[in-house]
Amino acid sequence: MSDLKNDIQRLEASTMTDMVESRLREYLKRKSFVPGDALPKEQELADALGVSRNVVREALSRLRMLGMIESRKKRGMVLTQPDILGSLERVLDPLILGKNTLRDIFELRLVLEMGLADLIYLRKTSEDIAALESIVAQEVNKQQKPFRVEHEIAFHGKLYQMTGNDTYMRFQKMLLPVFEYVLDYEIQVNGQAEVGKVTHHDLVEILRTGDAEDFRRGMKAHLKPHFDRLKA
Amino acid sequence: MSDLKNDIQRLEASTMTDMVESRLREYLKRKSFVPGDALPKEQELADALGVSRNVVREALSRLRMLGMIESRKKRGMVLTQPDILGSLERVLDPLILGKNTLRDIFELRLVLEMGLADLIYLRKTSEDIAALESIVAQEVNKQQKPFRVEHEIAFHGKLYQMTGNDTYMRFQKMLLPVFEYVLDYEIQVNGQAEVGKVTHHDLVEILRTGDAEDFRRGMKAHLKPHFDRLKA
């Protein structure tokens, strides 16, 4: 009898929570819940699902973390508009990501950078250009090396903002630490790469006088050292 | 005395779980946990944090959903390499996303599409081109309207795969349903848009004979109707 534990697989609480979470999602979808709609009470859900209230609470806690539900005074739990990047932010830690994922994210940042020209040309203002110019002026004044993390973040961060797309901006900013991490590692192994021939200053000049295609070509030249790493 | 519930804010279990989740993250980071390392037992964590075991279990359940920890026989809970897009997938439901987020995602798909040329040119093979050609041939044989969702998915999905970047591929595929949802809505309101002058067939031709810059220019012309929507 003492071997029973080895012979029959225990139904883990975590498995139950997975199932309850998935049932809840199905239910919300099938009943066409929209943000603002109130969910049934914990105890009702537990009774309907035939599980303990603790398991229901765990599953609801997951949806709460994803920003899909929240508790409101008097109304109980209601469906909300989720913060789509909130949970991504929680797992983008270079130390726990695998090598392939780190490389993927490094490339993804480059893809996003190469694709932003059209949105920028749709929405750029003269104030934006002035702001970029003052960022570039600070780089020169500080007499620092051409490649500095804080310059990169200030300059490219402003470009992200100019897309007028909050999701794009947040996503790119989230990818930066991973990008820097991979870059640092590469530099340790292969040595510092050349700097792209097109500088931040040149890119601002293109934004003034060129079109979206010129800007894309300039960005490609600016990022060339990173693309060269991918070939290696 | 009966007004006390109105005068003092109840410490919700959900708030406790938020705090415990955040403490656990801090702890894992400060102690430099890496994938494979075993976590302390639930009860030890509960004792150290001074909270009930249920709250600890809820917080751990969230980390489990994010793919950051998993249960292993005999070793208990261990840190794992999270699936960075798993939780994003859970919330990308057009029906519960806000209008701004839907627009952001529509644009993000275009940005990712415009940025993929460099990765494709780094990795494309003659087998890839042959596969694209057979997809295009099917489009023509079926004598269907030039814009069909299944053609779009087959053709662009193959392009995503050609980047050799799994994260990019999964991310783009996840965005597609939201993209289609916004497109359907726009078509209902503003009528069907023109089709881009550069077709899938033309894009394959460019992949054969042109360079990355030609391809980007072709893709821009292919996606022009979508970019025109953004101007409106």
From TrEMBL, chains A, B:
Keywords, sorted A to Z: DNA-binding, Transcription, Transcription regulation
Keyword Transcription regulation listed: yes
Listed CDD domains: WHTH_GntR (cd07377)
Residues covered by the HTH gntR-type domain: 14-82
Molecular function GO terms recorded: DNA binding; DNA-binding transcription factor activity
InterPro entries on file: GntR_C (IPR011711), TF_FadR/GntR_C (IPR008920), Tscrpt_reg_HTH_GntR (IPR000524), WH-like_DNA-bd_sf (IPR036388), WH_DNA-bd_sf (IPR036390)
Keyword Transcription set for record: yes
Protein name, per record: DNA-binding transcriptional regulator, FadR family
Source species: Dyadobacter soli
